[in-house]
Automatic annotation (TrEMBL):
Involved in the transposition of the insertion sequence IS5. Belongs to the transposase 11 family. One of its GO terms (biological process) is DNA transposition. It comes from Thiomonas bhubaneswarensis. The keyword DNA-binding applies. This is Transposase, IS5 family.
Length: 341
């Protein structure tokens, strides 16, 4: 016979705390009120001049988007889980409320950030909190890029030619235009074709925290955004990168500015690498491999796929993804303590 208790909710929450709730650690270490204040500054809450229901608190919505990125949920699934899942309700602050954000509310909040040009604000705000916790960028940095696939598009040859000119065929209806991603691009990597965007980032060597990010179409070469994601706030001038970032002119220019570039070399059919260069590549690879741990974590959080259309929404999604990774990494660093470093 199943036991019935008037205190079932409290008993379940107590057991949840004993087992260990990852979201409770986030709530403990992260100042979500400060993050919400920065979001409101960059994208002010809409007024009620036209009447209607007031928007939900920004802090609640920030927590919702963090959970959504952490568990790779669509807006529809996020709505369902907020109604169904105890740990989500407790983290977001809805345990005693019958009101929960639906899929439209979540989408509207994201669009508000895009229209206000605040797609990168959350990542920057999280970075400032990392600094306040004492996790400043140290030990050099690793730069790399990862392809983020988007839903593939089926176009005729004529439509492809028009899209490549950053235009849309006139015969497309408004509904069809909303479903066609004309900004995502094709690229090849190791002989395999990919369609979507690219996340270029700089990760600090010591803490494995993402310090700078840039989102572009997949067809843009990694090396174009090398200096854009170069983190000048790192306490070390060492920079590690793979063979895709070889550029003699840039290396000379940055070297004259004091940067120490550790970029792997690539051989050619008529000019293979020397033994010395091979050993150097291996030394660099041992350090540069740490950035792959970060991309693996992003992939576990669903960072290798997009449900949205367009560069603006991809930029929003990936900035929140990187920010959420940093928050999760912050909790891990706190658990390890200073002895780990």
């Amino acid at each position: 016979m199943i036991k019935v208790s008037l205190f079932a909710e409290q008993e379940r929450e107590t057991k949840l705390d004993k087992i260990g709730d990852a979201l409770s650690k986030l709530a403990e270490h992260v100042d979500f009120a400060a993050l919400a204040a920065e979001i409101d500054e960059a994208a002010p809450r809409p007024g009620r001049e036209r009447g209607g229901r007031p928007p939900l608190p920004t802090e609640l919505m920030v927590r919702v988007l963090v959970v959504q990125q952490l568990y790779n949920l669509s807006d529809e699934q996020m709505e369902f889980q907020l109604l169904d899942r105890l740990s989500f309700q407790r983290f977001v602050g809805l345990r005693q409320s019958s009101q929960a954000p639906d899929r439209t509310t979540i989408w509207t909040f994201k669009e508000r950030l895009i229209k206000a040009g605040a797609t990168e604000r959350i990542f920057e705000a999280v970075g400032r909190q990392l600094d306040r916790h004492g996790y400043i960028a140290r030990g050099g940095q690793m730069i790399d890029a990862s392809i983020v696939p988007a839903p593939k598009q089926t176009l005729t040859r004529n439509e492809k030619e028009i899209v490549q000119q950053d235009a849309m065929p006139v015969e497309w209806s408004p509904s069809k235009r909303r479903q066609k991603d004309v900004q995502a691009r094709w690229t090849k990597k190791h002989g395999k074709s990919y369609f979507g965007f690219k996340l270029c980032s700089s990760v600090d060597r010591r803490h494995k925290l993402i310090r700078r990010v840039h989102v572009s179409t997949a067809s843009e070469h990694d090396t174009l955004h090398f200096e854009r994601v170069l983190d000048c706030g790192n306490t070390s001038r060492d920079v590690y990168a793979d063979k895709g970032y070889v550029d003699g002119e840039r290396e000379q220019r940055l070297g004259e500015k004091g940067w120490r570039l550790h970029i792997q070399r690539k051989g050619q059919a008529d000019k293979p690498l020397s033994d010395c260069q091979e050993r150097r590549n291996k030394r660099i690879a041992k350090t540069r491999a740490r950035v792959e741990h970060v991309f693996a974590s992003l992939e576990q959080m669903g960072g290798k796929a997009l449900r949205s259309i367009g560069l603006a929404r991809a930029t929003l999604h990936l900035n929140w993804k990187a920010a959420t990774y940093n928050l999760r990494r912050l909790c891990s660093l706190k658990d390890m303590g200073p002895a780990a470093f």
